[in-house]
Design goal:
With 100 residues, this protein is mainly alpha-helical. Helices cover 57% and strands 0% of the residues.
Length: 100
């Protein structure tokens, strides 16, 4: 995977500001990314970038699957990742400087 799409990163932050959950954001990411890009590691990279998560905080994403047969349900994933997103809110809720 190349560079992250900053429009998607910003969109994830907007969804979180509106009360979206980690599972909702991951489903949205799966719709936005090409099938070959929608790998768990790519999803982790996007959420880490958007929400300043540590690898440990984002790692439950690897146990989740968009079609449901993952080790974690949406509810379990949200319970593990959403608190970390909120914990870092002061870092990601400030809009980044304009990229030139």
């Amino acid at each position: 995977m190349g560079e992250l799409n900053w429009e998607i990163v910003t969109h994830l932050q907007e969804v979180a500001r509106g009360g979206g959950t980690a599972a909702q954001m991951l489903r949205d990411l799966n719709r936005r990314l090409a099938p070959e890009e929608a790998h768990p590691l790519t999803l982790i990279k996007y959420l880490r970038q958007a929400f300043h998560l540590t690898l440990q905080e984002a790692s439950p994403i690897a146990g989740w699957s968009v079609d449901g047969p993952g080790e974690l349900s949406d509810w379990q994933l949200n319970g593990l990742v959403d608190p970390a997103i909120r914990k870092h809110q002061d870092e990601w809720s400030v809009p980044p400087p304009q990229r030139g």
